[in-house]
Write a structure and sequence with these properties.
heterodimer, A: alpha/beta, 8-stranded parallel β-sheet, 14 helices, globular, B: mainly beta
């Protein structure tokens, strides 16, 4: 059976080049199209100077530029500055107002999916549902490591969505929740910062055996008297859940978009860390027909030692997706 | 995440009126941020910590002190944008090379702790 999964790219992937002015937004659109991606995910607070004051002419530019390159705008990544003031948190009313501001801009851009930061309270989102329905934007709470699909905090959003019977509130998984193997680019950077290779190997092996992070951190910090880099490397295990890929399909009714997080795809077109080889068959099996939107986050782990080439990394990830999608399709 | 890019190369200079020195810097974050959430721009030159009251932030609008920034709710430091940080220091810096350290402390709402971003570069005064 042919799969229905679409390939997209988040502008987050090109943060290194965009930050340094080495790529323009239009370069990103053109690159996405060149690798056969059909969707682009945007971060207005990164990519739209002057935010939140975005003119109609700016909105038209985004729509026209996407159309010119034959891609659609797939998802809007929102932020919520609850700590904008030093003296107090935003009130509930201010939080709703900020989210509604984003929903309106999302709607103006013609985008129907919004990535909601995972820390946003479900009861605040409940208050935003009428606006999301009116503007026809799906609010997907980002299921981001160290949270995972069945974390009690995430299930609170599922409970609200079920109770309201709304199709405009749900989840938006970040594939970093399927961190099966300790990312080699993380390990290598901790070694450059002074971690002893034998201690790094121990931490990698502990993760291979899926030992609870707190045990490894204690071993490294207390028993081995680990140095700063070693303890830091062990503490990253708190952010490497390996969720059960088989369970993702149960939650497909709650999501409309997927952030395809990755830290590296090697020259053999293999992601050494995130279990795409298991997740993609599960998504096909569940009938997922939305996007896998590339989210390259390797730059911060290698930039101290080598030049970053986000385009090459994204290109490799898409070739890997094509291979895995074809394989899974054949197996069905 | 962008630590090594915070201090802009070749940007150190003495102010023409002799009141201090300045350099260019970027925000160590993957999006723009309201200035009220930039809690600290801690500058150290040749190992000497600069008093917070002597630091100014310039983004094309009025120059702001660190205290002013706390309530600058309607201004943002855009992603990747170069801003100027100046330091009040009569006479400026001696000609030649200086080691400059910058530590940015950001109040990021979704993080349980402040975000610290640091860079250190040796630059020549222009």
């Amino acid at each position: 059976m042919p799969h229905q999964i679409k390939r997209g790219v988040s502008l987050y992937s090109f943060q290194e080049e965009l930050f340094l002015g080495q790529m323009t937004i239009e370069d990103c659109f053109a690159f996405a199209a060149s690798i056969g991606a059909t969707g682009v995910e945007v971060l207005p607070e990164q990519n739209m100077p002057g935010f939140p004051h975005i003119s109609d002419a700016d909105v038209a530019w985004w729509k026209d530029t996407a159309a010119k390159h034959g891609v659609e705008l797939t998802c809007y990544d929102m932020f919520l500055d609850t700590k904008v003031r030093k003296d107090r948190l935003m009130t509930d009313g201010e939080q709703v107002e900020s989210i509604v501001r984003d929903l309106r801009l999302c709607n103006r851009l013609g985008i129907r999916n919004m990535r909601i930061l995972v820390f946003v309270r479900p009861d605040i989102l409940e208050k935003c549902v009428p606006y999301a329905e009116e503007l026809d934007v799906h609010m997907g709470v980002e299921v981001h490591a160290p949270w995972h699909m069945e974390h009690a905090w995430i299930l609170r959003t599922v409970e609200v969505a079920d109770r309201l019977g709304t199709g405009h509130l749900g989840l938006l998984p970040d594939m970093g929740i399927f961190n099966k193997h300790y990312p080699p680019v993380w390990r290598d950077r901790f070694i450059r910062q002074g971690a002893r290779p034998e201690v790094a190997d121990f931490i990698v092996q502990q993760h291979e055996e899926k030992i609870m992070a707190e045990y490894t951190i204690y071993e490294v910090a207390v028993k081995m008297q680990g140095n700063k880099a070693e303890v830091g490397m062990a503490e990253m295990l708190r952010h490497t859940p390996y969720s059960n890929p088989k369970r993702i399909k149960d939650y497909i009714p709650y999501f409309r978009h997927i952030q395809a997080k990755f830290y590296e795809v090697d020259e053999n077109l293999v992601d050494p860390s995130i279990a795409y080889g298991e997740v993609i068959p599960a998504l096909i099996d569940g009938g997922w027909n939305g996007y896998l939107s590339s989210e390259y986050e390797g730059n911060r782990w290698i930039q101290d030692a080598q030049a970053v080439d986000s385009r090459e990394q994204v290109r490799r990830q898409h070739l890997m997706f094509e291979r895995l999608l074809t394989q899974a399709e054949g197996a069905n | 995440m962008f630590d090594k890019y915070l201090i802009v190369d070749d940007s150190l200079r003495n102010l023409p009126d002799g009141s201090g020195f300045a350099f260019e810097a970027r925000l160590g974050y993957y999006r723009g941020l309201g200035l009220s959430m930039v809690e600290e721009l801690a500058v150290t030159v040749d190992g000497e910590e600069i008093d917070r009251a002597a630091v100014r932030f310039h983004d094309g609008g009025d120059a702001l002190t660190m205290d002013d920034m706390e309530t600058a709710y309607d201004r943002r430091w855009e992603f990747g944008a170069k801003a100027t940080i100046s330091v009040v220091r009569p006479g400026g810096l001696a000609q030649g090379e200086h080691t400059l350290d910058l530590r940015e402390k950001l109040r990021i709402s979704y993080l349980p702790f402040p975000s610290f971003n640091s860079d250190s570069k040796t630059l020549s005064v222009r």
